[in-house]
Amino acid sequence: MTARTLLLIRHGESTANVAAAAAEAAGADVIAVEARDADVTLSPLGELQAGALGSRLREMLPADAVLYSSPYRRAIQTARFALGEETPLRLDERLRDRELGILDRLTATGVEHRLPLEADRRRWSGKFYYRPPGGEAWTDVALRIRSFLRDALPSDAKDGVVVVFAHDAVVSLFLYVLLRMSEAELADHLLTHPVANASVTELTRDGDEWTLQAFADDTHLTAAGLPATEHVGEARTDA
Q1: Pairing relationship of beta strands 200-206 and 4-10 according to DSSP bridges
Q2: CATH (domain of 217)
Q3: Per-residue pLDDT tens for 150-160?
């Protein structure tokens, strides 16, 4: 079987990314987001990052590329700013960001201050298996991704290109699933490989084996004179 290509794209910088960074810097407990997670929009810089991403994607994508997106607004906006409002885009809720439940809108400091028992439970369970009340463990997101891969790639990809607009946790867990990482390997990867906003991660498949060709490549932002942003963290910025 010839190689099949999967492009994983994190959304551009969002207003919640900016608010989370400000809250963490101020030592605040709560992140001042303006909307529920599904409705968070791109920041002005995020819109520019998505536009620069579009210049790159138009050079990479064949006409028959299949485009998927998380249903969250910031992911859809990234696709639209990059490729145009009329671009066919398939929304799939399995690509949504990890749900944080009771931890939503709290900084890491806020979790320690307001929910110390949950902070202890998370340390005991570890990042991979910890499920906050009302939220998801990383393993839950991995199950969503396995379901998506089963349905989307065999029927739609053929020997072509599939593009996914999503979130940093989702991108990392695609790698966990496709590269057959262990929990320890994923933990090490997360510590050393942040997924930058509006970056492109590329994998190719030959038979049943996937190979990572590029990780979180954001050179298109440098070419456009735009700053790269990562916005990593333990609470809302798991996003």
Answers
A1: antiparallel
A2: 3.40.50.1240
A3: 988 865 556 78
